[in-house]
Amino acid sequence: MEQFLASLAFIVLYGGTYGAVLFIISVGLVMTMGLMRVPNLAHGAFAALGGYLTILLMNQAGMHYFVAVPAAVILVAALGALAERAIYVRLYNIPELDQILLTVGIAFIFVGGLALTFGPNVFTIRLPEVLSGSVDLFGRSFPVYRVFLLAVGALIILGFWLVFDRTTLGAKLRAAVDNRSMAQATGINVERIVMLAFAAGTGLAALGGAIGAGLFPLEPLYPIKYLTIILIIVALSGFGNIKSSIVVAMVVGIADTAARYYLPELGGFAIYALVIAAVAMRPAGMFARQG
Amino acid sequence: MKITVSSTGLSALDRPRMPMIALVVFALALAVFFVFPDRLSLAAYIGIFALFALSLDLALGMAGIVTLGHAAFFGVGAYTAGWLALAGWQEPITGVVISGLCAAALAGALGPFILRLTGLPLVMVTLAVGVFLFEAANKLTWLTGGDDGLYGMTFSPVLGIFEWSIYGTTDYLYVLAWLALAFYGCHRLTTSNFGLALRGVRENRLRMSLLGSSVLAQLTLAYALSAFIAGVAGALLAQTSEFVGLEVLSVEKSIDVLVILVLGGVGHLYGALLGAPVYLLIKDMSKEWNPHAWMIIIGFMLVFVMLVARGGIHGVLHKVIERSRGKLPNGEPR
Hints:
Number of domains of chain B: 1
Number of helices of chain B: 14
CATH topology of chain A: ABC transporter involved in vitamin B12 uptake, BtuC
Distance between the termini of chain A: 45 Å
Largest sheet of chain B: 2 strands, antiparallel
Structural class of chain B: mainly alpha
Number of strands of chain A: 2
Strand order of the largest sheet of chain B: 1-2
Radius of gyration of chain B: 20 Å
Number of domains of chain A: 1
Structural class of chain A: mainly alpha
Number of strands of chain B: 2
Largest sheet of chain A: 2 strands, antiparallel
Oligomer: heterodimer
Order of helices and strands of chain A: HHHHHEEHHHHHHHH
Strand content of chain B: under 5%
């Protein structure tokens, strides 16, 4: 019994941290997919950029981890706002195939650029001492790093809740997701909302890429390699449904970890069978209102 | 009257003649055999991907099925050919046909479920199917060899005459023959009534079903035909390399083939013949210098094609040729 509890705690913590990082990286795409209906296949590239920028700021500018990460996030968010105005704004009313190809092109440019700048090898981010120890929880010792990831995830969720449910900006954003032209008609500046959401989404992806580097190692192919899992979270969440993306990311993270723990021979592949069934049955997302 | 079509620039009622450009490409491909006798393995590889891209053109260009999971059929074809050879069935041509049929059967089974979807959900489900097969192949090591892949297979000579050689001479001509055959088949298909009906579905699904067309059945048939050719391409890869690795099922392969087709030009069949050499030669040339740097070139080409040169290499060539003949006034787009 005690052993079962310990393994359960292991799965919840490891799966939970996996889910938290998945959520932080994917939520931006969930938002922008809801607002703009653009399958931004270059989303993972912004996450990779966040991680690589962190390394650059730490090694070249000598910044501390806790300074470098926010700085990288702000830089990537600014770049995201710029990219939205310069490139993505052209993609809103073209066929899906064209959107996919253009964003794949952008992702390819990122991969090539990262490979040229940083070389083809895997990079690791040196964690500060505070995060490199371990703590005892439920009779097992866990890396502080994992607890840190969970805490950041919880903070982001709290932040989303505050912004969405407690501010007019959040109300406007929800309105724009639900019915873009109606929101526009009531005088909401949807274009500005879209830009802000895109910047926030890319910034969060960068945060996920930076702090999640221990789970998703940084390499030039990062934008392509983790695209699938990001898209799965988005597809299951339904476009623009942030609350369900929290649940989905956590469930996917924990289910995946549990499957790997209890059924190692099945591993990560059980989850994809569920995904196919889920998306085929409810193409609008798991928690979409059926209409 | 011309009816211009949004995504590919093909006029819906314009039935293509056997294109000159295809004959030129095949003549060039034959010339490669004599000019670059030491690069024939790479040339065979390019031919295989041209065939794979051709299969995608059937699904995407003709029927409008937007998919990010076409490697599923390529991979099933490759593994089937590998298993057949390892089980003792070493005759290559029947091996290719059986592999193609297996891929087609998978598409035929999936089609009625997933082709109901359109747009983003379809993209997501095709992607998920692809990832599912990849993960399954990764886990079923007793069947697929897992990370190590399938190896140690041998094939009997083509038609019982042409021995496989390490220089890839047989490989190249064998692949080229399959490519020419598939191209001719696809060409006949596009000019048939079925091909025209598919274009109708692509342009307006609702209108076609209101006209009494059984849209889902037609789409499934197109998907299965496309999968057959993709399976053939996969089987050819297994036979020419005598190896099947996990990457034949990967999402990267699905993206690769999509990019190849778009660079070449979607919806004209010969876009596949043009895109594959360009894409794979760029990849091959820069590979030794930096394993991923070539993607920056392809990325910029892709963005350029989508924003400026709609219709890909084929579109640009077409415009140049038509303009030189004075058919296309300068002001008219495409």
